[in-house]
Amino acid sequence: MRGAKPWFDGHDQPRVPLLGELDERKPATWECYIDLAADHGIDAFIWDWYWYDGEPALHEALEDGFLRARNRDRVKFSVMWTNHPWTRVYPTLHTDGTDGWAHLRDAPDVTLEDAWRSLSYLTSRYFHQTNYWRLNGRPVLAVWTPESLIRKHGIEDTRALFDELRAMARRMGHDGIHLHAPLVRERHGDLEALGFDSYGFYTSLPQAAGLQENASLPDFEQAIDHSRDVLWPEADARSALPMFPNANPGWDTTPRLLRNYQPAAGPVDPTWPGKTYWGDPVMFVNETPAGFRRFVQAAIEFVQARPEQPQVVTLGCWNEFTEGHYLLPDTRFGYGMLQALAEARTGERVRSPNDWTHDFFGVEGPAAY
User: Fold this and answer.
1) Cα–Cα distance for residue pair 177/53, rounded to 1 Å
2) Residue 67 and residue 42: Cα distance in Å, rounded?
3) Which residues contact 351 (CB under 8 A, 6 or more apart)?
4) Is the dihedral of CA 76, 68, 325, 279 positive or negative?
5) 50 in helix, strand or coil?
6) Which residue ranges of the chain lie beneath pLDDT 50?
7) CA 23/CA 17 separation, integer angstroms
8) Nearest to 60 by CA among 32, 34, 94, 24
9) What are the Cα distances from residue 354, in Å, to 118, 151, 283, 336?
10) DSSP 3-state assignment of 80?
């Protein structure tokens, strides 16, 4: 993030955390984060959880930080089995001038044996935690991409894997498992065959960007309308399972891409802000706390119109600075995104540690952003 540059006039990069560069392996960091989350309306964190080379990976923030925080019970948590390979997808410039994609570690679902080891490990490690998130009494387990398991092992073996995992959870004293699929493309029918309980979006924005024709720089406000009016209803209609809508404070992956990266051959016009010239990232313009508040309100209204399903809205994300979707305060909006979330939930102005941010985003007057 320190090296991120603006790619066009008005491009808000680099993004700088207002609280500083905190070590997320430390309990003190999460004691601060947990209070911020709970005070502004977040009920649970869903943790990306990785397993490579036969053991957990990239888990120190959860194990050493969050789970050792003195106030951890203020916020629930669950894990998302993130079954993708460890790759270097976003090219960065090396010291020798080269760059490129690289496969570093296999996904934990290459074999059913490794999938079972990793899933049974997280089931026994986390489900008994007092603040583990449950829906209808069952611990929530998100599976990043069920399609990957289906493609590698088929529906029958994948269903057997999840059935064995549920049986193990019951033997441990849990009332089964609530399986959630946060990244679903077209195979919604397979989710019911696999025994999933819900599905949704990891993030609505990149999909909503595709609804904006010829938009090199998709507009945040338009994406909110597309999500509410097209994306969520279409996804909801594809399955009888509950669909959880998702709201995001923004999206911008340019910090992960080479400056002026051009995958296609041929000349480019350096004065044109075209996505091909930039390596086809998705980046939004016109994100504001006011827009995010409207996004969250739309998602809440969507689930309230379906009272028979769990009243869940997912948000992406807490700390993804390099993808430009995060709720942590920054030097651009201060605590504005967190305040917008709280106000969307309560309908009232919520004071944050630097309440002066309200005065900077007056689109409806000085008392509101």
Assistant:
1) 26
2) 17
3) none
4) negative
5) strand
6) 260-278, 356-369
7) 12
8) 24
9) 42, 49, 28, 9
10) strand
CA distances from 138 to 20, 42, 128, 134, 263 (A): 37, 20, 11, 5, 46
pTM score of the predicted model: 0.88
Q: Are the C-beta atoms of 133 and 141 separated by less than 8 Å?
A: no
Tracing tokens 């996804």 back to the chain, one arrives at 235
Task: Give the pair of three-digit tokens for residue 103.
Answer: 């496969």
CA–CA dist 364, 285 (Å, integer): 20
d(CA 292, CA 271): 31
| Residue 365 token pair | 């007057």
DSSP state of 125: H
- The reply to whether omega before 32 is within 30° of 0 (cis) is no
Structure tokens belonging to residue 10: 């008005």
Rg (C-alpha) for the chain, rounded Å, is 21
What's the CATH code, domain 27-360? 3.20.20.80
For CA atoms 24, 27, 32, 36, the dihedral sign is positive
Per-residue pLDDT at 356: 42
Ordered by start, the domain boundaries in the chain are 27-360
Distance CA 143, CA 132 (A): 16
